[in-house]
């Protein structure tokens, strides 16, 4: 059953990337960050990697942010929660010159945690009008490994001895816009499936 779910998720993503005829997904919104700014996101506990959805991420059960750089810069994104047993996770993509669609659009409601996310000739889901090309090039990803033992390959479990917090640090090499998603991964038993508060800071 687990393999079956993974195959479904892979097929959904492949179709979204390969086909320009499928409408893109329009986010409800995202937060534009400047250095040192924090925001409270609403995030579901399995939204970054859901085993019931082929281990894909859920766009509308996660929350989204962005920032821009004009020169290469070290960036730190931290996501933390006070909810016991909740493990936040982050993926960052670069939306450069090849990305001509507004940043409110992403290729599909199912997102990959650790790879590029692309759709050419993306269409608005409501009007069916072409909004441009979506080219999200993956930069960095990781999840809070503290507090549990599951460590799936290629997902980048990060530890800092503080369960409920994850921090990504990387060099934003290219000028332009970076978009990131914050979700939940592998919650402890008993955690509510309703969206929880996760404080996100970009430095």
Automatic annotation (TrEMBL):
InterPro entries: Cu_bind_CorA. It comes from the Bacteria. Residues 22-188 form the Copper(I)-binding protein CorA domain. Residues 1-23 form the signal peptide. Transmembrane segments: none annotated. Keywords: Signal. This is Putative Copper-repressible polypeptide. It comes from Crenothrix polyspora.
């Amino acid at each position: 059953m687990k393999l079956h779910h993974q195959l479904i998720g892979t097929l959904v993503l492949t179709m979204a990337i390969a086909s320009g005829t499928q409408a893109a997904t329009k986010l409800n919104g995202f937060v534009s960050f400047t250095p040192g700014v924090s925001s409270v996101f609403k995030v579901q506990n399995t939204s970054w990697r859901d085993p019931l959805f082929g281990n894909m991420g859920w766009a509308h059960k996660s929350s989204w942010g962005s920032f821009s750089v004009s020169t290469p810069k070290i960036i730190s994104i931290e996501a933390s929660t006070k909810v016991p047993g909740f493990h936040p996770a982050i993926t960052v993509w670069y939306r450069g010159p090849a990305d001509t669609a507004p940043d409110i659009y992403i290729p599909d409601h199912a997102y990959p945690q650790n790879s590029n996310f692309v759709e050419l000739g993306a269409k608005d889901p409501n009007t069916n009008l072409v909004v441009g090309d979506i080219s999200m090039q993956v930069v960095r990803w990781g999840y809070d490994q503290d507090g549990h033992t599951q460590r799936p390959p290629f997902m980048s479990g990060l530890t800092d001895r503080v369960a409920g917090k994850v921090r990504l640090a990387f060099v934003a090499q290219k000028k332009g816009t970076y978009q990131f998603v914050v979700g939940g991964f592998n919650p402890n038993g008993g955690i509510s499936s309703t969206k929880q508060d996760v404080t996100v800071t970009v430095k």
